[in-house]
Design goal:
The complex is a heterodimer of chains A (about 260) and B (about 325). Chain A is mainly alpha-helical and about 260 residues long. Chain A is built from twelve helices and no strands. Chain A has one domain. In chain A, helix 2 crosses helix 5. Chain B has one helix at about 1-15; strands at about 20-25, 30-35, 40-50, 55-60, 65-70, 75-80, 85-90, 95-100, 105-110, 115-120, 125-130, 135-140, 150-155, 160-165, 170-175, 180-185, 190-195, 200-205, 210-215, 230-235, 240-245, 250-255, 260-265, 270-275, 280-285, 290-295, 300-310, 315-320. Classes of the chains: A mainly alpha (about 260), B mainly beta (about 325).
Chain lengths: ~260, ~325
């Protein structure tokens, strides 16, 4: 096996072990979107009003509308959780061990990113299965089509998390950053309301939502669930992924990155 | 010989193009009929018709469509192939809804403003009977045996039972407030009547004329006042009723063996009437305020598409392919 694949396999195994031993984390990741779906959505059924927005072909209930947003929420929280574990790894010293492996840094970080995304995807599917049990039916092939969308969106959010992890050294600071990032990113997106609904209250809010990369991740997932490719969303997600991965690689570069400046 | 026969068949096939499955929708405000191709689920044609089109149905052989042009006080006859209005038939004043007798010749019409039920002979093109009924007649039904006609009157809150031979009312049944639509089960043993303001679907025994049950509807996030049953359809096997609930914007799926509501489907605003495909796999609902038609897949039991039509779609009629 090539050293690259060995590193990938080792990192995946480590992440899988962590996932299996931290069942509470898995449950917590599921409970969060389920509370939104079963409690919040029930109270806000009128929020959507009656409208048909692509990719939907007919009128839908609010519960159906927010499912893609909640799937993206799982990816977002997991990306931040993954980034948090990176900061923890750095504090514990295992990060240094990982980065001193005789392989390119970008590959190691990418493996770390990919491992986190795969765990997120498992959780996303578990959520979709529970939503199905509660009567939220999506096109059967949509469950398959959404897989690449989950991967791309997960990588983008993971890259954002990686970048944040590269800029923060202490665990205590990261909790604050998480709240600072997660809530605006989630609420200022199409996860809970369509853009036209946002525009009704403020065009500025609508514009912010339209620019938010998380919105594009949500829409990429939403369209994929309904067997459609949203090229614009894919483009934005890919661009955001590239930018934040680049920034993260720069941040983790001991010669130039933020790590160097922080450790001085 | 064989070659000649094959050529003749090919020529026939070319000269008589197969007709697609269609649903015809009357647009009350636009004075048009939208024609939806069931295969593509798109509007393929729009026909200009008389003023305030409401009730719409096909002849038994699907060669013509009949349309209530309410404000023109006429029933229009439309050729299905050419989509041209062939002629107008007398209807009495302000025809709103109608039903075709199993004989395919007599149309029973509700004349809303005159409190009359008119009987039209489509072959002789004349009204053969006018029967005084309650105030604002609306819903119409004829049993499968062709012996009983029903007229519901909105303001009198009654279903009038009329003998189709003598044209006499032989019984009246009190229904919930503002009865809108009526239909017999396939075996003619039960009559269903929807009550718009009353909010229920009433079921009557056709032998005793007694009410068997009133089916009620409850939707968690909809105010009870907005649950207003209007048009409905019963399935051939007498297991399901699909009920349009007006401003509740839902179609209720009712188990009519146990009289229980199984499910509600989300559709457009103020769902009014509906048409069902002959194989009972698709339902087309007219959503008046949102100006569209929602297609519900009855096998999967889920709405699959909503199609924009004219303003205030009212009635719907289904025509199978190659008919």
């Amino acid at each position: 096996m090539s050293p690259y694949l060995r590193a990938l396999s080792a990192i995946l195994q480590r992440e899988a072990l962590r996932f299996l031993t931290q069942r509470e984390r898995f449950l917590a990741a599921l409970v969060r979107p389920l509370v939104w779906l079963l409690v919040f959505a029930a109270g806000f059924r009128a929020a959507l009003g009656l409208s048909i927005t692509p990719p939907y072909q007919t009128y839908i209930t609010y519960e159906v509308y927010i499912v893609p947003g909640l799937v993206a929420m799982i990816l977002l929280f997991n990306a931040m959780q993954s980034a948090l574990s990176l900061v923890y790894d750095r504090e514990m010293g295992s990060m240094r061990l990982l980065l001193t492996a005789p392989l390119p840094r970008w590959w190691l970080l990418f493996c770390k990113l990919l491992a986190g995304v795969l765990v997120s995807i498992l959780q996303a599917y578990a959520f979709l299965a529970i939503a199905y049990a509660f009567g939220i039916r999506l096109p059967p092939m949509g469950y398959l089509w959404v897989l690449p969308a989950l991967l791309v969106a997960g990588l983008m959010l993971g890259a954002v998390g990686l970048f944040l992890a590269s800029t923060i050294r202490q665990l205590e600071n990261f909790a604050g950053v998480m709240n600072f990032v997660i809530f605006p990113v989630f609420f200022l997106s199409t996860a809970l309301y369509p853009l036209w609904r946002m525009a009704e209250s403020s065009t500025l809010l609508r514009d912010i939502c339209a620019w938010n990369p998380f919105t594009h991740a949500v829409e990429l997932i939403r369209f994929a669930l309904y067997l459609r490719l949203n090229l614009e969303a894919l483009g934005w997600v890919a661009l955001t992924f590239a930018v934040f991965l680049g920034l993260a690689l720069w941040g983790f570069d001991p010669a130039r990155g933020i790590m160097t400046r922080k450790t001085r | 010989m064989i070659r000649t026969t094959v050529s003749a068949l090919a020529l026939m096939a070319l000269s008589a193009p197969a007709l697609a499955q269609e649903v015809w929708i009357s647009n009350e405000r636009d004075q048009t009929v939208s024609i939806i191709d069931v295969q593509t689920m798109e509007v393929v044609d729009t026909i200009e018709v008389g003023a305030r089109p409401r009730g719409i149905m096909f002849s038994h052989d699907y060669s013509v469509a009949y349309l209530c042009a309410s404000d023109d006080d006429t029933i229009q006859v439309i050729d299905v192939e050419t989509r041209e209005i062939l002629h107008n038939l007398p209807s009495g004043e302000n025809p709103e809804t109608f039903v075709l007798h199993p004989d395919g010749r007599h149309i029973w019409i509700s004349n809303e403003d005159d409190n009359i039920t008119s009987v039209l002979d489509v072959e002789e093109r004349r009204i053969v009977a006018q029967i005084p009924v309650g105030i604002e007649p609306e819903g119409k039904a004829i049993n499968h045996a062709g012996t009983i006609a029903i007229t519901t009157s909105e303001t009198t809150n009654m279903a009038h039972w009329i003998d189709t031979e003598t044209h006499e009312i032989f019984n009246n049944s009190l229904v919930g407030s503002r009865p809108r639509d009526a239909e017999f089960t396939t075996d003619d043993k039960r009559l269903f009547v929807s009550a718009e303001i009353g909010g229920g679907l009433h079921v009557f025994d056709t032998e005793t004329f007694e009410e068997i049950v009133e089916i009620r509807f409850e939707i968690p996030d909809v105010h009870p006042h907005d649950i207003q049953p209007v048009g409905f359809r019963l399935t051939e096997d007498m297991t399901r009723a699909y009920v349009a609930l007006g401003p509740a914007n839902r179609i209720a799926v009712v188990d009519i063996e146990n009289y229980e509501v199984i499910k509600y489907h989300q559709v457009g605003r103020r769902v009014w009437h509906m048409a069902m495909s002959n194989d009972e796999t698709l339902l087309f609902t007219t959503n008046g305020v949102s100006g569209d038609v929602t297609v519900i897949d009855l096998v999967r039991q889920e709405p699959i598409k909503t199609i924009q039509v004219g303003r205030f779609p009212w009635g719907a009629a289904y025509r199978p392919a190659d008919s």
